[in-house]
UniProtKB/TrEMBL annotation:
Source lineage: Eukaryota, Metazoa, Spiralia, Lophotrochozoa, Mollusca
SUPFAM superfamilies: Intermediate filament protein, coiled coil region
Keywords of the record: Coiled coil, Intermediate filament
GO biological process: heterochromatin formation; nuclear envelope organization; nuclear migration; nuclear pore localization; protein localization to nuclear envelope
The protein's name: IF rod domain-containing protein
Chain residue ranges for the region called Disordered: 442-495
Taxonomic source organism: Lottia gigantea
InterPro entries hit by this protein: IF_conserved (IPR018039), IF_rod_dom (IPR039008)
A Gene Ontology term for the protein's cellular component: nuclear lamina
Record-annotated membrane-spanning stretches: none
Bias kind Low complexity: ranges: 473-495
Amino acid sequence: MSKQSLSRSQEGDSGFIKRKTVVIQRGGAPASNSYGYSRQSMSFGNIGLAPGTYSTISHEGVNDMKGKRQHEKKEMQNLNERFGNYIEKVRFLETFNAQLENELEAYRNQKHTDFKPIRDMYENELAQARKVIDELSAEKGGYDAKMAGLQDLVDTLRKEIEILESHAKDYRATIDNQAAQIGGFEGELQTLRNRIANLENENDKVRQLNNQRSEENRRLRTDLDNETAAHIEADCRASGLEEEVEFLRALLDKMPAEPQPVKIKGLDLKDFWQNNMSKAIRDIQNEYDNKLDLMRQDCETRYSAQIRQVQSGAVRDNFETQQAKEEIKKLKTTLNSTNARIADLEARNASLQAELNEQRGLVKSLELELDEAKHAHMTDKQRLQSELEACLEELRMITDAKLSLELEISCYRQLLEGEENRLGLKNIVEQAMGIQTKGSTNLASIVGGGSSGGRSETRTESTRSIGGGGSGSSVVKTTTTTVKSSSSSSGGRYN
């Protein structure tokens, strides 16, 4: 059946085109009859169509049929190619199976073959591999101890870093508190400065008021002096007028009676004159005395009032001056205490600023030391990680080689034992694939224990020919199981 299919695939496209024609003619009738029937069915009923409709429909049907034929042709070509590849693969596998049967028959015919040199060679290689594994195990133990020490160092450094970070947080909190205190002191200092400025303004106002009172006192003293001088002058004038009146009175008294008075009958002119004159003089004197008394009383009253006013003003000015002096003294005392407090606050501010700068420098130095320690730790960690990965890779390669050698040795051992029991090669290989020695199990457990995550197994098969390439050669199929720890798990262990 395969030869007929192959012959059909070698005939080309013509055979498939014929077959395709058969597929299109589904009713079993000839192609000409089917086309004629379709034309008769189309013309049945005498349907009136426009000119050119038949040609259009036939053209579209032909194009559709051509497209379908091309598509089916491509599908058949693809199927033919796949079928040819399948036939070629089947022939290759038949040839390979025949070769394997011949080799198996050759192995069965070898009865007295000596496998001791091969066994010794693999045992030597196995001993060397075990020695290398022991050395690597010892070296791995040293690396594990070193890694544990480094891990302890890392933990210690991490604790120191946490302590330094806590100290840094405390320092930052202290710095913030001191900055807040400095802000409060600066606010209080500004308040005291404003109060001092207000007190100085009040002191200036009091000084101006004192100057005004002094000027007013000076003006009142000047007015008092002027009034006193006017009073003295008025007294002098009154004394002069009194003297003048006395002089005139004396003069009138001493005047001679030279002119003969006119004698009027019944009237004494001398007596009349004397009486009238004395009366007039008395009236003038009384009037003058009254006015003088009024003027004196008025001046005395005015002067006494002014003196009382000046005295009361002087007392009030003295009281206000004394009060202003006491207030000025208090303000000076407050100003001195405020200046002293400002000096103390400035000194404390300077000391706090110096301490703040010192703490900042200490924090910066600690941060630099912390960064250097982190960098050194990361460098050591990367170096140890790379060394560990290299050791694991070398251990994996040695494990692969050891497992391969052990499996090959077990395969040869089973092969030798199978010659006595006349077992088939297929059973020997299947038994060898399921065998794993105690050393390989321990080594696989060591490799699996070195990683904290998952593990992956890779199975490789190799075919070796023993005894040359002739008919008596033997083929051994070896399966190698590789146990590989995931790098992510090993890397996560030392983070």
